[in-house]
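Students often ask why inverse folding is considered easier than folding. One informal answer: many sequences map to the same fold, so there is more than one right answer. In these notes we will look at a single instance of the problem. The structure comes first.
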């Protein structure tokens, strides 16, 4: 959470984590395309040297005001390949909310699990645990003819996080996922935000 008292803005960092090719970048592109110009910033993608892999994506989403503060969400995704392990850890620094995107394809179940375990390990290394970071799970690629049944995928959801089915490539479930994590993050910080808003109001009155 980044609070800028001068501009009365608070920014929360949301990270989309998951195995390579599960649909993280697609989610961000869809979110970006669904927002009005006034609600979004440019979508930034940093490509690696081969110019193929997205290094990270960033989009800023403006969700109005709360306690007199303008609330923004910065959305990040991580690159999939194993050589970017360090980047994936760095992107998690300062995370306020997690969207774990799982691939519904049976061949990607192991990749989903490994990615989830890596995420937990990275969080631990930067002093965070899943207990303190709100998370939602998105089961993506529900359109695949061989998509695993929800029941099977839910075995993977040991934390019983809110789960959302999606077809990111068609935009289905994308905003629902973002809204769900946004609500969780905001409710976690509601009391802090109220306090900050009040302090700012008092300071503004001097
Ligand atoms: N069938 C299907 N393909 C998808 C879906 N979402 C993303 N994809 C495709 O999966 C591939 C990888 O998506 P991308 O967003 O780049 O994955 P990332 O590596 O997690 O960022 C692309 O070809 C997407 O078009 C989906 O819901 N269904
Ligand atoms: Mg990507």
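Output (designed amino acids):
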């Amino acid at each position: 959470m980044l609070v800028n008292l001068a501009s009365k803005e608070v920014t929360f960092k949301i990270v989309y984590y998951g195995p390579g090719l599960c649909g993280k970048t697609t989610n961000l592109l869809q979110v970006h395309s669904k927002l009005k110009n006034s609600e979004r910033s440019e979508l930034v993608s940093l490509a690696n040297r081969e110019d193929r892999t997205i290094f990270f994506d960033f989009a800023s989403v403006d969700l109005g005001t709360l306690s007199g503060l303008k609330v923004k969400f910065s959305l990040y995704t991580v690159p999939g390949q194993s050589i970017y392990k360090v980047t994936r850890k760095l992107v998690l620094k300062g995370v306020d909310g997690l969207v774990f995107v799982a691939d519904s394809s049976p061949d990607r179940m192991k990749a989903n699990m490994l990615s989830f375990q890596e995420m937990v390990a990275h969080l631990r290394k930067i002093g965070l645990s899943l207990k303190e970071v709100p998370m939602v799970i998105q089961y993506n690629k529900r359109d695949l003819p061989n998509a695993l049944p929800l029941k099977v995928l839910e075995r993977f959801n040991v934390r019983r996080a809110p789960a959302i089915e999606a077809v990111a490539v068609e935009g289905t479930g994308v905003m629902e996922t973002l809204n769900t994590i946004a609500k969780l993050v905001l409710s976690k910080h509601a009391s802090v935000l109220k306090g900050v808003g009040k302090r700012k109001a008092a300071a503004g009155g001097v």
